[in-house]
Amino acid sequence: MTNIQRSLTAATVAFIAMLHATRASFDLGWTTKDTESYAIFPAAIPELSELSVCFWMRTTDWDSELVVLSYATPDNDNEIVIYLPGEDKIRFYVAGQYKEAVANVRDGRFHQICMIWRKQLGNWAIYIDASRASAGIGLSSGVTIKDDGVLVIGQEQDELAGDFDYNQAYIGELSDLNVFNRSLTDNEVNVMSRTCYYDGGNVLRWYDVRGGLRGNPKFYSPTACQGFDGEMINRNAAPVRTKSFLASDHYNRNGGAI
Ligand SMILES: *[C@@H]1O[C@H](CO)[C@@H](O)[C@H](O)[C@H]1NC(C)=O
């Protein structure tokens, strides 16, 4: 190669790396409980007879109520809710009914959680770190999840797109939250639990969550998960973020909502 070719190649590699970095993963963080910081998506969800929601979370808050996601419709403010009522409980609401798993995910480490539902028998499953923590049938069986609602990440809606409850605001970090209109297989959940940046939700993709941010969730990029797509990772191997590191320019590059 000539020098020009070499520098062109280097430039191309840098450019591709930059594109990759632009698409690369980020984490969102809520450091105080308030009702001002969230991500909101009107009309995000079509009618659904199957649903999967997968995400990563990390929190050290042991006992407060935490709402990761709420989807309200004009008829039902609990059409879909991912709700941690306190300590080791995790609830999955579909069309106003819920099922629960018990597991300590509030230990300051990242955990991957998937919630899966199918209409016909109301089959449901809650996976934690790729293992099935709880599952069964009879969760809103025969009921279709309605469209025309509003999906909010980080707050609980007590009415459509509002009346957020301060006590239920999320605190901690979220990453790679994807919503699918089908039930994922064990294998897909497993692959996701070992993938840095899945971003494959066909109803809501994590990358697009950036577009719905309101208030001041912290925007962390690069993510605690340092790898790129498809790479084996261990998010918890990343250095623990201290408060001062969280506040530093180095880490909090965008300083909040974008
Ligand atoms: C999921 O959505 C896609 C379009 O994004 C559609 O083609 C497909 O039929 C849907 N699948 C189900 C199970 O609803």
Automatic annotation (TrEMBL):
Signal sequence region: 1-24
Q: Which UniProt keywords apply?
A: Calcium, Disulfide bond, Glycoprotein, Metal-binding, Signal
Work out whether the entry's keyword set contains tRNA-binding: no
- The record places domain Pentraxin (PTX) at 24-226
> InterPro entries recorded for this chain?
ConA-like_dom_sf (IPR013320), Neuronal_Pentraxin_Related (IPR051360), PTX_dom (IPR001759)
Is Calcium among the key words of this record?
Answer: yes
* Top-rank lineage group of the source organism: Eukaryota
Gene3D superfamilies per the UniProt record, alphabetical: 2.60.120.200
Reported cofactor(s): Ca(2+)
Q: Extract the PANTHER family matched here.
A: B6, PENTRAXIN
Protein name in the entry = Neuronal pentraxin-1-like
The beginning of the lineage is: Eukaryota, Metazoa, Ecdysozoa, Scalidophora, Priapulida
